[in-house]
Amino acid sequence: MCELLAISSRFPVTTKLSLMRFAEHGGHSAPHQDGWGIAYYHGNDIQRIREPCAAADSDWVRFVANHHLISSMLVAHLRSVTRGGRNLANTQPFTRELAGRMHLFAHNGDLPELFNLPQFKSSRYLPLGNTDSELVFCCLMDRLASIWLNRHEPPPLTERLDIITELAKEIRSYGPANFLYSDGEYLFAHSHRRTNPVTKHIDAPGLYLLKRHCPATELNNIEIPGLSVGSHEQTLTLLASVPLSDEPWQPLDEGEIVVVKDGEVVTPSKNG
Question: CA-to-CA distance for 25 and 30, rounded, in angstroms?
């Protein structure tokens, strides 16, 4: 089953060896060798790098790690094929434009029944590949368009969260449905279930969360390997399919949705 990673911060961060540590799960220490991708927000736009090959063996991963790409929000994905061929179109994260900004999505799970259900067919957004993950994203974007278009300012968070919560509730009944979605302002994380690497059973948690607040005098004590945060007082929230350090990562409940902005969880977690 795929792996997800997201970082939201108050000030931009540089991911160096932290990306390499995550990439080790893509074919070395874990079997997610069918593709990888990482997306960095820069204002309303996204810098996205993807490959339909094992991240652990990728020269592009080393290029990204060595060139110190900086962002206040990034999402990364390691792919293990369940639906769709091993090609670039099926490699996550996925992006689409809506209301003059880029929207971003990455999914971990298996939802084959969705292809046969009319409520998950989008009229506005069409998949480029043939994965259930991209199908879910197109459906989500189609529903979000109803609140984003034809207005002079972004919709309230409550309206966005209602649509995301309803979709999460729908897709959970068809299989594991962990996902990360961002509209460039907020990061939404839905935790469901995933395959436990020890028991091989599919169960909760689907995501783990780590929050860090670092005064400027303590920045050098951050324990996430290779995560550079500059000289500011910093607030970070990280989400991952599995803990990436020895720190106290918090497992999210089954069906829990958290919303993060500028490194802070901005609304109480919500079960859809």
Answer: 4
